[in-house]
């Protein structure tokens, strides 16, 4: 078997593992939404509002996950597995600290924050607050799972993250309907099921770390402040990058909402489809994080660059396929989401933009993973902020001011994707990200 074949198998294996982990949470949310939905409009609306808050609070954890992957992968590529796992130990300490702080802050601001999101509907804000105050207790478990995913991907363990995430979500999917209905806990039962599953997942990630601590390969289980500081620096850049995404998406949704109900509904349909496609395409990015980081850690810049372009080609192929499916379903797909003629019409307005972004997005997400794996996070932060502030947000606001309609909003999203693609393609081609060694200095 040639080295190319081995590399292809490894890319596919890592991408498949990442896809299962990425897809598990949205699939569970669909189940939980269906369970709560039968309680009525108010509990369902409360779940939606509180879920938005939880997503924002978990933002740091997602950045910690990606940063840990790149750092652990470099040590793994250099043949220092214990040092790679130590990144997971320190990331887990950070997950507990950040999670504890987020619980305290979340409990303090739960009431005003849910009222701000919901507006004047007291019954919905009360439902959201009651769910949030329980569910937020599971946030340290969520962050432990994210930290665990980070180091496990860094050492190219494709099985353990899948087992942990699938088991945790199965527990939640079973507990939620039982606690909501037979136990009579209603919406609060959904929150309790979430907390139980999240702590089970977090505990399993800690146990995975402890299994690595053997007499032959002892680990430093105590806190290592220099390592933790390095992880916080990486997380800072990735959090700023994620904040640019959230600001852009919230601006676009606000603009679409001011255009009318049909425009907002169609925008939500389009964004759900785009986010789902991005989820699938992001599995290649996660494979790139691990493989590129390991190559650079092992001092093989040529392998890192070769992997970058190969993963990008796979992303392009996947993006073309998704775009073709979306183009073929331009009529049937909107019909499946809404029977309202006005909503369907607005969906057709944004559809060409959605289809056109797929191939570019496939390459873009792969390059995201390449640069995160290389630890080039300051560039990622900058190019995302510039693309959002100079592309997406201004164009979306102009669409409202100059009455360009929903097509103008999606032109802004397309410009956001295009600017990031150009910036990262040029950066990847320049080779300035090819910094070899166990750490990026």
Describe this structure in words.
With 441 residues, this protein is mostly helical. It has 15 helices and no strands. The chain has two domains: 3-223, no CATH class; 248-430, no CATH class. Helix 4 packs antiparallel against helix 6 (139-154) and helix 14 runs antiparallel to helix 15 (406-430). It is globular, with a radius of gyration of 22 Å. 49% of the residues are buried.
Question: Would you tell me the structural class of the helices and strands?
Answer: mainly alpha
The helicity comes to over 70%
Number of separate helices = 15
> What's the structural domain tally?
2
In angstroms, what separates the terminal alpha carbons? Answer: 36 Å
**Tally of strands:** 0
* Overall mean confidence score, pLDDT: 88
Q: Give the amount of beta strand, in percent.
A: under 5%
Q: State the shape.
A: globular
Radius of gyration: 22 Å
- Profile the largest sheet: none
Show unreliable segments.
1-6
Q: What sequence of helices (H) and strands (E) makes up the elements?
A: HHHHHHHHHHHHHHH
This entry's quaternary arrangement is single chain
């Amino acid at each position: 078997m040639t080295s190319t074949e081995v590399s292809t198998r490894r890319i596919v294996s890592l991408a498949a593992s990442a896809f299962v982990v990425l897809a598990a949470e949205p699939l569970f949310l669909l189940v939980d939404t269906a369970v709560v939905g039968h309680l009525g409009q108010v509990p369902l609306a409360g779940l939606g509002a509180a879920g938005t808050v939880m997503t924002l609070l978990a933002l740091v954890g997602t950045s910690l996950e990606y940063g840990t992957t790149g750092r652990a992968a470099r040590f793994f590529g250099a043949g220092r597995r214990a040092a790679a796992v130590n990144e997971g130990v320190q990331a887990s300490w950070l997950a507990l600290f950040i999670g504890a702080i987020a619980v305290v802050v979340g409990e303090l601001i739960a009431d005003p924050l849910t009222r701000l999101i919901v507006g004047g509907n007291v019954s919905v804000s009360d439902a959201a607050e009651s769910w949030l105050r329980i569910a937020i207790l599971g946030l340290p478990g969520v962050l432990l799972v994210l930290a665990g995913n980070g180091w496990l991907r860094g050492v190219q363990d494709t099985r353990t993250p899948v087992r942990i995430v699938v088991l945790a979500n199965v527990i939640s999917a079973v507990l939620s309907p039982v606690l909501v209905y037979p136990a009579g806990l209603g919406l609060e039962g959904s929150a309790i099921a979430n907390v139980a599953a999240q702590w089970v997942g977090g505990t399993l990630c800690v146990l995975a770390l402890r299994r690595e601590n053997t007499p032959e390969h002892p680990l430093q289980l105590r806190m290592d402040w220099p390592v933790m500081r390095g992880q916080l620096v990486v997380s800072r850049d990735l959090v700023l990058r994620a904040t640019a995404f959230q600001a852009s998406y919230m601006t676009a949704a606000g603009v679409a909402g001011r255009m009318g109900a049909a425009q907002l509904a169609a925008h939500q349909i389009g964004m759900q489809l785009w986010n789902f496609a991005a989820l699938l395409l992001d599995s290649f990015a996660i494979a790139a994080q691990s493989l590129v980081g390991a190559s650079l850690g092992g001092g093989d810049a040529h392998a890192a660059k070769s992997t970058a372009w190969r993963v990008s080609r796979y992303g392009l192929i996947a993006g073309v396929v998704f775009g073709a499916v979306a183009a073929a379903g331009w009529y049937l797909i909107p019909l499946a989401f809404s029977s309202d003629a006005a909503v369907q019409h607005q969906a057709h307005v944004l559809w060409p933009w959605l289809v056109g972004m797929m191939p570019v997005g496939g390459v873009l997400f792969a390059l995201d993973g390449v640069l995160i794996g290389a630890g080039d996070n300051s560039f990622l932060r900058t190019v995302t902020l510039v693309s959002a502030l100079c592309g997406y947000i201004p164009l979306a606001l102009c669409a409202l001011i100059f009455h360009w309609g929903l097509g103008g909003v999606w032109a802004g999203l397309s410009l956001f994707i295009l600017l990031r693609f150009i910036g990262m393609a040029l950066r990847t081609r320049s080779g300035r990200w090819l910094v070899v060694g166990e750490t990026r200095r």
